[in-house]
């Protein structure tokens, strides 16, 4: 889950894209990049790091132009430590294309071999996004019937791209001298929405908060399979380019990934989290009698709405027992288990008076590797809590994710192959209450009856694209090799071997 944004305006766009990326920082902390277009000339700056560190004044000055795009990266393919895999990616032919991607291609390895043997295109990194930009370039070359390039040519190319690539992808791409292209995979797994400013600026971004926060009015979500082409004058052309579509967004966006003030596919993320708290409250009652709980304490940040609603329904006080150091990023999207573990303690500190002598119910939005809950339960005990109960607003995460969340192996998931009781023992809580899968789907799904379902594969093992089998997952597991940061222990990534080397 990276954050992407694309803009077409009639004035300079560098600062606007920078501001938009700050509003997407929660979706990716490892690298950031901006591309701008002035006529036919492409300007780009990308590097590892957070937005504020990557762009200095001199970099911003070197990004002129009236159209552009940006990305914040949370790597789910390739190497988290490679500067070259920061996005956007550039290919010079045809026209000069730059592209930014949120999601993960599940057939990147096969495509990489195909691009080399059939299309004679060399892919220089382990990133699936470099594969994607080359597939788009190849298809655009084939469908262009002369100059100027028409939206119809672009849409024909996107149709072919949909036929070749698999997995999840929300994409923004600039075609030099022509305009901004955006498209979303046929299941709409990753979010993408569009809005407009009072001056006619068109913005396409991962989350609605990006539009609102930069003074643009949200207009609509990009439909699954749909492509939008915005020419350099700001005219918007759209077309459905996929043969079969089914709106099934990733449910983890609502649980954790997106900001609560965003609305994705007609669902308020905040309301989704409140609803999760409500259904979780019912499950808590059946496990721990509310009169045995003195206080409900959220594990900041993402669990707050669920914890608040749960406390209200149980008639229990809701208190802040942990203070978050706002200068430490989100721990779950950090690369490497050692850094994630260390960051929990750096990030959260206890207010001892809220714990001393009390039975506390801690609430988190999800328990994935168990890194946070293990540390937090111990911190609550060290602060003098009598009993420490733990509740998760999401069900146990038991299956690897292949669509752009960095949990590619089952073995790293604390609940994989374990009973709730076994997980409880590992995290050291006195009781552990999980949401159930149907409860989660209903709590969120009822907020938009037009949804055709969710991708909830990390919870139920059902992969929405229908083309992921045990072999694919094993291949993804095996491919997690040789991607270790020399300074990190336990850091591995999904690697796509080069066909030349295979
Ligand atoms: O079981 P784990 O592997 O530890 O992962 C789950 C935790 O990670 C996330 O928090 P994070 O610190 O990333 O972000 P937040 O501040 O938005 O809650 C999530 O909200 C859980 O607290
Ligand atoms: N989380 C994402 O969306 C990642 C995008 C792409 N797969 C990368 O690793 O760079
Ligand atoms: Mg958290």
From TrEMBL:
Gene3D superfamilies, A to Z: 3.40.50.2020, Glutamine Phosphoribosylpyrophosphate, subunit 1, domain 1
Record keywords: Glutamine amidotransferase, Glycosyltransferase, Magnesium, Metal-binding, Purine biosynthesis, Transferase
Record has Glycosyltransferase as a keyword: yes
Cofactors: Mg(2+)
Gene Ontology molecular function terms on file: amidophosphoribosyltransferase activity; magnesium ion binding
Active-site residues, Swiss-Prot/TrEMBL: 2
Record bears the keyword Glycosyltransferase: yes
GO BP: 'de novo' IMP biosynthetic process; purine nucleobase biosynthetic process
Family annotation (CDD domains): GPATase_N, PRTases_typeI
Record domain Glutamine amidotransferase type-2: where: 2-233
EC number, as in UniProt: 2.4.2.14
Domain of life according to the entry: Bacteria
InterPro entries cross-referenced by the UniProt entry: GATase_2_dom, Ntn_hydrolases_N, PRTase-like, PRTase_dom, PurF, PurF_N
Ligand binding (Mg(2+)): 302, 364-365
Enzyme class at the top of the EC tree: transferase
Pfam families tied to this protein: GATase_7, Pribosyltran
Record's catalysed reaction(s): 5-phospho-beta-D-ribosylamine + L-glutamate + diphosphate = 5-phospho-alpha-D-ribose 1-diphosphate + L-glutamine + H2O
Biochemical pathway: Purine metabolism; IMP biosynthesis via de novo pathway; N(1)-(5-phospho-D-ribosyl)glycinamide from 5-phospho-alpha-D-ribose 1-diphosphate: step 1/2
Details of cofactor binding: Binds 1 Mg(2+) ion per subunit.
Role noted for this protein: Catalyzes the formation of phosphoribosylamine from phosphoribosylpyrophosphate (PRPP) and glutamine.
NCBIfam families reported in the protein's UniProt record: purF
PANTHER family: AMIDOPHOSPHORIBOSYLTRANSFERASE
Protein family: In the C-terminal section; belongs to the purine/pyrimidine phosphoribosyltransferase family.
UniProt name for this protein: Amidophosphoribosyltransferase
């Amino acid at each position: 889950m990276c954050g992407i944004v694309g803009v077409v305006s009639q004035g300079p766009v560098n600062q606007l894209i920078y501001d938009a990326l700050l509003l997407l920082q929660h979706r990716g902390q490892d690298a950031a990049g901006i591309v701008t277009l002035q006529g036919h000339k492409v300007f780009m700056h990308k590097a590892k790091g957070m937005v504020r560190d990557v762009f200095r004044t001199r970099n911003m000055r070197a990004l002129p132009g009236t159209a552009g795009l940006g990305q914040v990266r949370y790597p789910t393919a390739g190497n988290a430590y490679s500067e070259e895999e920061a996005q956007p990616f550039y290919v010079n032919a045809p026209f000069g294309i730059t592209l930014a991607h949120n999601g993960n291609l599940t057939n990147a390895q096969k495509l990489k071999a195909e691009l080399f043997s059939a299309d004679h295109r060399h892919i220089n990194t382990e990133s699936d996004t470099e594969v994607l930009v080359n597939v788009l370039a190849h298809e655009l070359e084939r469908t262009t019937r002369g100059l100027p390039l028409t939206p119809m040519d672009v849409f024909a190319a996107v149709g072919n791209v949909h036929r070749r690539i698999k997995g999840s992808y929300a994409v923004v791409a600039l075609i030099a001298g022509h305009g901004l292209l955006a498209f979303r995979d046929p299941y709409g797994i990753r979010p993408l929405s569009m809005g407009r400013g009072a001056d006619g600026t068109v913005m396409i971004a991962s989350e609605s908060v990006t539009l609102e926060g930069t003074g643009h009015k949200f207009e609509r979500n990009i439909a699954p399979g749909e492509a939008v082409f915005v020419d350099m004058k700001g005219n918007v052309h759209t077309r459905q380019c996929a043969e079969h579509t089914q709106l099934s967004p990733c449910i983890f966006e609502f649980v954790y990934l997106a900001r609560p003030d965003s609305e994705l596919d007609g669902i308020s993320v905040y309301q989704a989290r409140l609803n999760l708290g409500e259904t979780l409250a019912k499950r808590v009652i059946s496990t721990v009698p509310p009169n045995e709980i003195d206080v409900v304490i959220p594990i900041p940040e993402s669990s707050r709405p669920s914890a608040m609603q749960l406390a209200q329904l149980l008639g229990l006080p809701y208190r802040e027992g942990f203070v978050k150091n706002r200068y430490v990023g989100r721990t779950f999207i950090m690369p490497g288990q050692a850094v994630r573990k260390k960051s929990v303690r750096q990030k959260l500190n206890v207010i001892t008076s809220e714990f001393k002598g009390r039975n506390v119910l801690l609430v988190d939005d999800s328990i994935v590797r168990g890194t946070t809950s293990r540390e937090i339960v111990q911190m609550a005990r060290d602060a003098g809590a009598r009993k420490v109960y733990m509740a998760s607003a999401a069900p146990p995460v038991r299956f690897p994710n292949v669509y752009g969340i960095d949990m590619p192996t089952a073995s790293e998931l604390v609940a994989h192959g374990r009973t709730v009781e076994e997980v409880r023992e590992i995290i050291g809580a006195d009781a552990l209450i999980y949401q159930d899968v149907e409860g989660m789907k209903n709590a969120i799904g009822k907020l938009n009856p037009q949804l055709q379902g969710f991708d909830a594969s990390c919870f139920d093992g059902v992969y929405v694209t229908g083309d992921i089998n045990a072999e694919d997952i094993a291949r993804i597991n095996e491919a997690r090799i040789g991607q270790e940061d020399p300074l990190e222990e336990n850091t591995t990534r999904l690697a796509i071997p080069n066909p030349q080397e295979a």
